């Protein structure tokens, strides 16, 4: 019999579990699930739009404002500033930024302003410009380092205002 084992003279039952019926049941369940699973899978209904419109991607660079702080030249007390590659004086920066931000909010959700400073500009001057820009209340304000040699200078040098603190 299946209960025997070990020493035949002892007559004591052994404590082994007969796993054959359990394996049989597991195989039957496996076959049942394998047969039933493909029948239970149904296709998901989908509703696709009839016509898709391609939206023109907005140019984010046109919505961004760049305030560049350039190194001091000989005779200047303060560094030169440019707003989107146009030189501007410190006095005009805040008012001009407010006007530009106000007009751009009509067409854009957020207005980003970045301050890019030349590596040779003193920290205090950069902080002062940063605070001027912050007072214009843009949605996002960040520091940028576009090039190691500093921000790109405007090509039109004639539009440069008279430097602050310089004679005449």
Count of alpha/pi helices:
4
Judging from the principal axes of the Cα atoms, what is the shape? elongated
Largest sheet: 5 strands, mixed
Radius of gyration (Å) = 38 Å
Helix content: 25-40%
Structural class by sheet pairing and helices: alpha/beta
Low-confidence stretches: 158-168
Strand content: 5-15%
Mean of all residue-level pLDDT scores: 77
Question: Spatial order of the strands in the main sheet?
Answer: 3-2-1-4-5
Number of strands: 5
In whole angstroms, the N-to-C terminal distance is 119 Å
> What is the succession of H and E elements?
HHEEEHEHE
Task: Describe it.
The chain has 168 residues and is an alpha/beta fold. The chain has a domain at 60-159. The chain has 4 helices and 5 strands. A 5-stranded mixed beta sheet has the order 3-2-1-4-5. Helix 3 packs across helix 4. The longest helix has 21 residues, at 20-40. The protein is elongated and about 115 Å long. It starts with 19 loop residues before the first helix and ends in a 24-residue tail after the last strand. The model is unreliable at 158-168 (pLDDT under 50).
Key descriptive features of the protein:
4 helices; elongated; 32% helix; 168 residues; five-stranded mixed sheet; alpha/beta; 5 strands
Topology readout:
Layout: H1 20-40, H2 60-63, E1 64-69, E2 81-83, E3 86-88, H3 90-105, E4 112-117, H4 123-135, E5 140-144
Parallel strand pairs: 1-4, 4-5
Antiparallel strand pairs: 1-2, 2-3
